[in-house]
Design goal:
The protein contains twelve helices and twelve strands. It has 350 residues and is of the alpha/beta class.
């Protein structure tokens, strides 16, 4: 779909505009849109402005280290590639390109169940880099067990059960466009997708999954401290704070607004990660200060793919790297572990 030759991007806003220019309106709206009035979608971004920094000076920040870990896996920057369905609509390489870019940059790609490529193909593309499998539970227990055991055997490092999609959200842009994202382009297959099953899931199913897999279990889609507590009680190894990019429940809270209360309840028992509206390095630093171990980017990574395929994704990560280092230096911190709650506060006037 790309109409423009790949150029060197100096800002993330250039990536955004190039992606929009390269995609059809229907595909752009599918990835950029949210549920109903899109209030949740807007809140994810606007809420970033509710938090302001408390910079310190004369802190000796000549060398900046942005590396960290997640579940013991090394990350060259505190950003991972969020799982996204239907990336083949943006670029036929889809998850293959994402996995290669993440591998080259020293981070982790999360593979969605709804992908055009098999786990075998994506793990080959990752070239030895770690991958995490995001599970849409779309069949019975035998279907789920077979899929989980398959990714275990391939060497995926964790399974992330998505729990915020009991039914498909009403995405009005798609309805107005009469767009059917399940209409697969010619020559593309979605090998792991099956009948929707998520509406029947309960915490008993989480307990069953915990017993079934030896991999670390991540619960994706937590939006309350009560559910964070239940996730830990049912064996979760990490909490993923997410409102599905504002695409499921309208008028849900912005994820960054609820992060601190979830981190407080978790109390260091497991690691907490987050997505939802993170479009700048400053956004990522705020999440780290509020207790997140790392941030997953979805739409921004997708815009990189639309703007320039694998190289476009790499440029997005490079721009985030630059913004992270600049923000940390001006904030007065030289490594990720130094970023704590004392460096941010809520602006009560916003």
């Amino acid at each position: 779909m790309r109409k423009n030759k790949l150029k060197e991007f100096f800002t993330l806003s250039e990536v955004y505009q190039t992606a929009k220019d390269n995609l059809t309106k229907e595909v752009w709206d599918y990835f950029a849109g949210g549920a109903d009035s899109e209030t949740t979608l807007r809140r994810n971004s606007s809420a970033m402005g509710h938090f302001e920094f408390r910079p310190r000076v004369l802190r000796g920040v000549g060398t900046i280290d942005i590396s960290t870990t997640f579940l013991g896996l090394p990350l060259q920057l505190p950003i991972m590639m969020a799982p996204m369905a239907s990336l083949y609509l943006i670029d036929r390489e889809g998850d293959l390109a994402m996995a290669r870019a993440a591998s080259a940059f020293g981070t982790i790609h999360w593979l969605s169940t709804r992908t055009a490529y098999t786990p075998e193909a994506v793990i080959k593309a990752a070239n030895g880099a770690p991958l995490i499998f995001q599970l849409f539970w779309r069949g019975d227990n035998n279907w789920c067990k077979n899929l989980v055991k398959r990714v275990e055997a391939l060497g995926f490092k964790a399974v992330a059960l998505t729990v915020d999609t009991p039914v498909y959200g009403r995405r009005e842009r798609d309805l107005l466009n009469r767009f059917n994202h399940r209409k697969i382009p010619q020559g593309i297959e979605v090998p792991m997708d099956r009948t929707l099953h998520e509406a029947t899931l309960t915490w008993k199913d989480v307990a069953w999954l915990r017993r079934t897999t030896k991999l670390p279990l991540i619960i994706k889609g937590i939006q309350s401290f009560e559910d964070a507590r239940l996730a830990i009680e049912h064996g979760a190894n990490a909490i993923y704070v997410s409102n599905h990019g504002g695409r499921q429940l309208d008028y849900a809270p912005a994820t960054i607004e609820i992060l601190a209360e979830i981190v407080e309840v978790v109390n260091g028992k497991v690691e907490v990660i987050i997505d939802g509206g993170f479009q700048r390095g400053t956004d990522v630093i705020k999440a780290l200060a509020l207790g997140a171990k790392a941030v997953c980017i979805g739409k921004t990574a997708a815009w990189g793919l639309a703007a320039g395929g694998e190289r476009g994704v790499m440029q997005v990560l490079k721009l985030f790297e630059s913004e992270l280092k600049t923000t940390m230096a001006n904030l007065g911190v030289s490594k990720i572990s130094d970023i704590t709650a004392k460096y941010v506060r809520v602006n009560k006037y916003i």
